[in-house]
Specification:
Radius of gyration of chain B: 26 Å
Structural class of chain B: mainly alpha
Number of strands of chain B: 0
CATH topology of the largest domain in chain B: MetI-like fold
CATH architecture of the largest domain in chain B: Orthogonal Bundle
Largest sheet of chain A: none
CATH architecture of the largest domain in chain A: Orthogonal Bundle
Order of helices and strands of chain A: HHHHHHHHHHHHHHH
Structural class of chain A: mainly alpha
Distance between the termini of chain B: 51 Å
Strand content of chain B: under 5%
Shape of chain A: globular
CATH class of the largest domain in chain A: Mainly Alpha
Number of domains of chain A: 2
Oligomer: heterodimer
Shape of chain B: flat
Distance between the termini of chain A: 28 Å
Number of helices of chain B: 13
Helix content of chain A: over 70%
CATH class of the largest domain in chain B: Mainly Alpha
CATH superfamily of the largest domain in chain B: MetI-like
CATH topology of the largest domain in chain A: MetI-like fold
Strand content of chain A: under 5%
Radius of gyration of chain A: 23 Å
Largest sheet of chain B: none
Largest interface: A-B, 96 and 98 residues
Order of helices and strands of chain B: HHHHHHHHHHHHH
Number of strands of chain A: 0
């Protein structure tokens, strides 16, 4: 319908919108290069008059154990995705293709589970973690998320579309049900698995609620919590150092996105529309 | 028919084998579901009708009075009101902007991939980090936003520091973050519309761009719009990261949202019972949203 609008007008609107969207990124990078005095006085100039990149980024890496925090984020997100797929795929296959007593009940539980976010059940989970002595460990950041009812729901829909003949043929060839899951279903459900992986990494890389509850030690923080620790350790309005820290902490996922844009956008679209 | 019982028992054996294999496959998930979902949810329901506090040994049963107390609790009512304001700002604006951008980008063959990536960038940027950037952008005296406003001769705004503006300021950040996600969902919906429908509409005398939108695009996008709207509302109800990073519920409780007060009650004041009752209300709210979505979706099938 917008074909009738002149192209120049369309480009103007899209360009203006892009400027608004990129505005925070531009000032984030620019400010991370400026000394504090210039942040207060420089107005809207993006290029620094005096460069303070070295000092700012040095603070970003030394005030908190930045390398360790980024590594925590990668390990936690990686482990969560791995466990979620390892548990969800066999269950989704059974729900989609096998007949067994309790199947409807289990699927009803999956649907109910979609309703209950971690925020709502964090108190019993915290109490359990405390009793088990798991607070302030990387494990406590992973275990509550090993079950993803959303992954089960998404994979089940996808696996339903796999032809039964393919599975019968594999069974006639003597494959066990477990072998069918990993050697027949997984390759066929790969688009769903990779889409879910993207969705899960974006969600857990961002999550602050649970880490804030379960972790109080800086060296065990995930990136969002690490940035809160950085802000707490900071005195005054040292925006240069704060912006340097935000650049470092934002960069990994943004770079990953820029390298695999289609994977990201298709993945978020599929999980968004099915969720 | 001597063959039948034999075949029947073979089939029964196969069914038994299939059920055994199925339970082997779902077993770990069932165990996790009990430990991480069912039992915690039941625990929250039980705690919600008590006055339990972390560390206190005696627990009293309050029953439904616990919920009646919530309804008169000023903090909780304030949080519901602030969350509602946030949702009513973020959801409609991010859905409409997402739709508008998707249609503009759809029509733009050349720069499609570029604009799509630019608008999607906030979705993959760490919320807590970008919130810190917005805090600087919104700084009342040297923040670039107020500097731009002054450039146009407008008065600067005390964005995050004033109880009148703080929810709007948080909503601006929320919209900036959500638009790109809604845009890619709408793009998927637009691509799925059958091109011949536009040709058919043209033959029926639909000429103007607005009429093409009204007659073809909008009705065909109905289910997508509903999905996007529901996701937008649910995500907005869960606003927490920006509040925890920037305002801590202030100034003067003006930005206390639902998840923020649940976190405060449960993990700062250790009022486990009250926090659980709030959490149950939170789940009930999500349930209502999903029921509305399903109802509207059922209705739309008749028109579709």
């Amino acid at each position: 319908m917008t074909r009738a609008i002149p192209r120049i007008l369309r480009l103007l609107v899209l360009g203006a919108g892009a400027v608004v969207v990129l505005f925070p990124f531009a000032f984030m990078i620019s400010t991370s290069l400026k000394p504090t005095s210039e942040v207060f006085s420089a107005g809207l100039a993006l290029v620094p008059q005096t460069w303070a990149a070295g000092a700012n980024y040095a603070k970003a890496f030394t005030r908190i154990p930045m390398g360790r925090i980024l590594l925590n984020g990668v390990m936690v997100c990686g482990a969560i995705v791995l466990f979620q797929i390892v548990f969800a795929l066999p269950a989704a296959y059974a729900l989609a293709k096998l007949r067994f007593r309790g199947r409807e009940m289990l699927f009803a539980l999956v649907l109910l589970g979609l309703l209950v976010p971690i925020h709502a059940i964090s108190i019993p989970l915290y109490a359990a973690a405390r009793t088990l002595g798991l607070l302030n460990t990387l494990a406590v950041l992973i275990v509550p998320f090993t079950l993803s009812v959303f992954a089960i729901f998404l994979f089940r829909q996808f696996i339903k579309a796999i032809p039964d003949d393919l599975i019968h043929a594999a069974r006639s060839d003597g494959l066990s049900e477990t072998a069918i899951v990993w050697r027949i279903v997984l390759p066929n459900a790969w688009p769903a698995a990779s889409a879910f992986a993207i969705f899960s990494v974006v969600a857990h890389w961002n999550d602050l609620y649970w880490p804030l509850i379960a972790i109080s030690k800086t060296h065990l923080a995930t990136p969002p919590l690490g940035l809160l620790f950085f802000r707490a350790a900071e005195v005054g309005d040292d925006y240069g150092a704060l912006m340097a820290a935000t650049v470092v902490i934002t960069a990994p996922l943004v770079l990953f996105f820029l390298l695999a844009q289609r994977l990201f956008i298709e993945g978020m679209t599929m999980t968004g529309l099915k969720g | 028919m001597p063959a039948e019982p034999v075949a029947g028992s073979a089939a029964a054996q196969a069914a038994r084998h299939e059920a055994r294999a199925a339970w082997w496959l779902v077993g770990p998930t069932v165990a996790l579901m009990l430990a991480l979902l069912v039992l915690p949810t039941l625990a929250v329901l039980v705690l919600s009708v008590t006055d339990a506090e972390l560390g206190a040994s005696d627990i009293n049963f309050l029953g439904l009075d616990a919920y009646a107390d919530l309804l008169t609790d000023r903090t909780f009512r304030g949080a519901l009101r602030n969350t509602a304001v946030y949702v009513l700002l973020v959801a409609p604006v991010s859905v409409l902007l997402g739709l508008g951008l998707a249609m503009l980008i759809e029509a733009e063959a050349g720069g499609r991939a570029f604009f799509r990536s630019v608008y999607f960038l906030p979705v993959v940027s760490l919320v807590v980090a970008m919130a810190s950037v917005w805090q600087y952008l919104m700084h009342p005296s040297f923040g670039p936003i107020n500097l731009v406003l002054r450039l146009f001769g407008l008065a600067g705004v005390n964005w995050l520091g004033s109880s009148d503006n703080v929810m709007a300021a948080l909503a601006i950040i929320g919209i900036w973050q959500a638009v790109g996600f809604n845009m890619v969902l709408f793009l998927a919906g637009l691509t799925a519309i059958d091109r011949t429908l536009y040709a058919a509409a043209e033959m029926d005398g639909v000429r103007s761009a607005w009429d093409r939108f009204r007659v073809v695009t909008w009705p065909m996008l109905g289910p997508t719009t509903l999905f996007v709207a529901t996701i937008s509302v649910i995500n907005a109800v869960k606003v927490f990261e920006t509040v925890a990073t920037l305002t801590q519920g202030g100034p003067a409780k003006a930005s206390e949202t639902l998840l923020w007060v649940i976190y405060q009650e449960g993990f700062v004041y250790l009022h486990v019972g009250t926090a659980s009752a709030m959490a149950v209300v939170f789940i009930a709210l999500l349930l209502v949203l999903l029921v509305i979505q399903t109802r509207v979706l059922d209705k739309q099938v008749h028109y579709g």
